[in-house]
Design brief:
Number of strands: 14
Helix content: 25-40%
Number of domains: 3
Number of helices: 16
Largest sheet: 6 strands, mixed
Structural class: alpha+beta
Strand content: 15-25%
Order of helices and strands: HHHEEEHHEHEHEHHHHEEEEEHEEHEHHH
Amino acid sequence: MRLDEYFEEIERDEAAERRELVKEKSYAITDYLEDVEHEFDRRVSDDALLGSTSPTIFVGRSSYPNVSTGVLSPVGNEERAADFETGGHWYDRGFSIEDVFQHRTGLVNSTQRAEVSNVADAWNGFLGTQREVAIADRPVDVEIGLDGPLDVDFEVSEQDVSSPTGPRTRAESATLTENPHVPQPVKKTLEDDDWRAAGAMNYLYNRGFDVYDINTILSAGALGQGANRRLVPTRWSITAVDDTVGKFLRGGLRNATAVDKTEVYYNEYLGNRFWIVLAPGNWEFELVEFKAPGSVWNPDPDRGMWIAADREGYDGRTSYVEETAGAYYAARLGVLEHLDERDRQASVLVCRHVTPDYWGPTGVWQVRESVRNAFGDEPGTAQSFGAALRELAPRLPVSLARLRRKSSMAAGVQSQLAEFG
């Protein structure tokens, strides 16, 4: 499909319109929070939270290496516990920002503090229960003994709306009330004390585990060589798995044939618009983010468009990205999965426009899923990478000249044209 026809098709795409967030900011989440608080008050007994079902865990990063480590569990929605775990099913069901916030505020975080090291044999007590929850392939029934009241703070403020969390409580104990089901590949990685974490991650990925499952297992300190196993803060584990699996996929494409034409893909979700350009050539990747004034990461309406960019060449990166953080690795993974499926490599530019409709942070999962799902339809095609940029430019929130000042790939096209002239 020619790129001009592709643009016309996007404008008629009803699915994209259904996913687009409403223009007016919605704070309906604050009404929901009152119901959540009432449910917590009703369900918590004097010294224990009974009948809870935990789908996942959380490991904090504050005060590292002495971190807060917790078991997350919904209260009053035990039969739907799996729905509360972050994953691609949120995208498939078309979750809005309010839906994401509701599921996150509906989880109580029962915590203890722990040193990240020396957890290789932590199969008893609170850490043991947490690990069992992490490695199970379905939510697990737990009973949590509370050491103090729930810290429920649902006062309405800009901070609460922009970064919602469920109530926290100090846990005196956590006990499984059923035997968790642990998949055989996970048991294999646990039993091999000589298996480095990166190899174990890639093994699980190749056995059909999505990155969401792997980062939870890594976070619980259940991967890596025995003596070196550590609790990994959840935020770090997400990026670590995206990066590790991405490097593995990139390595498998080093000798692959390049795509034979320039392809352009588009997707829009939760107020984020993604343009993905695949061009013939060896692997390189760049993410450019445009963050509109009034959006969650650029809240000052008078600041103007904020632009960030990070890239890598054929041999990848040797350092953590500076400007685009976890979004870089999430977007790169989505692209590499697509190329791996086709057994092709490409020079790749991803442009992410964060519009004012993105009024609350939902996490990098929405970047990963938006990029993954962008490849579901036929792309638009262009004669060259430069031609694709020229046709794409009117649909971006900045001029082509400004894009070239920030993007190494776009600047490279300009340099080649200048040399040719």
